[in-house]
Specification:
heterodimer; A: 327 residues; alpha/beta; Rossmann fold; 8-stranded mixed sheet; 11 helices; B: 338 residues; 4-stranded antiparallel sheet; globular
Amino acid sequence: MSLLKIENLRIELTTRDGIAPVIDDLSLELGAGETLSFVGESGCGKSMTALGIMGLLPDKIGRIASGTILFDGEDLTQASDARLREIRGNDISMIFQEPMTSLNPVYTIGEQIAEVLRRHQNLSTAAAWAKAIDLLDAVRIPNPKARVNDYPHQMSGGQRQRVMIAIALACEPKILIADEPTTALDVTVQAQIFDLLRDLGRQTGTAIILITHDMGAVAEMAERMIVMYAGRKAEDGPVDQIIEHPRHPYTKGLISCVPHLMASLSNDRPELVEVPGIVPSLKSFGRDECLFASRCDRADEKCRTQRPPEMSFENNQNSACWQAGDL
Amino acid sequence: MREETNNSAELLNVENLTVRFPVKRGGFLSRKAYLYAVDDISFSIKRGETLAIVGESGSGKTTAALAVARLVNAFKGKVQLGEHNFLELQDEALRKARAKVQFIFQDPYASLNPRLRAEAIVREPLDSLGIASPQEQQVRVNELFKSVGLRPEQQRLFPHQFSGGQRQRIGIARALSTQPELIICDEPVSALDVAVQAQILNLLRRLQSEMGLTYLFISHDLGVVQHMCDSVAVMYMGKIVEHASRKDLFNNPLHPYTSALLSAVPSVDKKRRAETKRILIPGDPPDPIDPPKGCRFANRCPVARSICKEKEPPLRALSSTHKVACHLVDEKAKSPLL
């Protein structure tokens, strides 16, 4: 049985223009120790999926309209707030993009790590403190015995993100959701954080959901990926296969619109492939059409009038494009 | 070691540029301390080409660019732009020369005045530098909107009515309005969504070839730099550690920091991932207020020797297109990591 199984999830947001499905019929499975990546531009529903799993959708505005989120067999969409609080931080935890704003500036990092351990694992103050030092060591903060007394402002951005990871991992969660964990960090620090996440995943069997817009990071970190567009799954499957042969024009655009460092430096630099336009506004989410059609150079009448179904290929790649077979 | 400083093909020649900021250190009766954000750097750009400055946050790349444009004061150094020593110009001469250097900023949400219509934003540099009559200005604004790919009727809109990519186009039109020779692009695409980045990068390259523009391109994204530049300067803690042509830098990085930086970039290319050995640099850069006396990278360098901690390595030219500041690189231009 997979650790996390989402079926036909629909998340609706109430906006000024009415109700918009920001997640529209999403299904996925995640096994223990696996790394799955969500890719797409801002506003495509990557973070909304994460918040939905965590039970942290914006109050009164967002709600799970239909579908199930099975975690270890338990449906999180039916769980009480108290039960969700128990799961959050204990079984499923999350790290965010901004290590600068996710920590409380008036408590030492030791206090912030120990708080999680006292609340969720009922450790004594002394035991929680000792474990906080161990955790700082595990995320490779040098001299953890001294640094445990530091305040967030005394640390660099990379160190703060490592503290966030220490907090997220304090209770040895089964799933770690990392929402753009390295976007605010330098590339050498990003490499350190990725190494850390990979090692921890291997050692503890924690499954990782990595949300990012960087195809390079996906290739480096994940086994499978889901490309999201306008609240829907555009394509999913094994990372290597999708990068080699994308079966959705949006995936293809996302890969080739970015200049990548390749094994050999090319002398001629052709224009980058442009994906014209921008992600449609929430108003058009949920329409019975391919929402990417307005930006797609292959779109025809069918694309503009009927939502494409998911087409499956032998290598476990799935694409929601009418022309997936010809791509 | 031959310097080609008086080459007329060079538009910008920066020598020994130093920028320092006073910092408060210690308590009562403390001595005045300075942070050298940019410490004695020299570089040049040929007319019509792009020099990229790369480095991580805090390395001094933005401060260097601001000093070149005189948006912060340099403590020392020379910025030769065409026939002017830009740092010595005063008053009216400075105002005139400023038209020749324009800036494109990172954040298109913060760099446009929300109360001005798009046309007024683009026209503003012309007004404040007193260039052209109102009629001529309007003609130029029309042309600029067209060349950056905006529609004429969009001139009357306010910044909030544009998307991020469109705002960056307005920022580019504004920078082009004074017909500058040098455009400093400070992380021009890092605030944009990936799909929009390509549109802006293509536009910048097209404008460069159409108008013969010279770019000083600041970025931390080495993939983007590789696509945009003709040559690269790598900065670490206020110093240029390597300055080379695009080909030399990406094919034969010599400074261990450059190698570490390149090896840290995640790639979609399977072959590159298999071939690249990750060079881990542990820890963080040292305290910039009190930098170590030898090589500033020595405490994180995987191959540092005792000389590296004793003596600061000068930036040496190994060929006309490759300079590096590392004791361990010999005349054969072989990376000390190999």
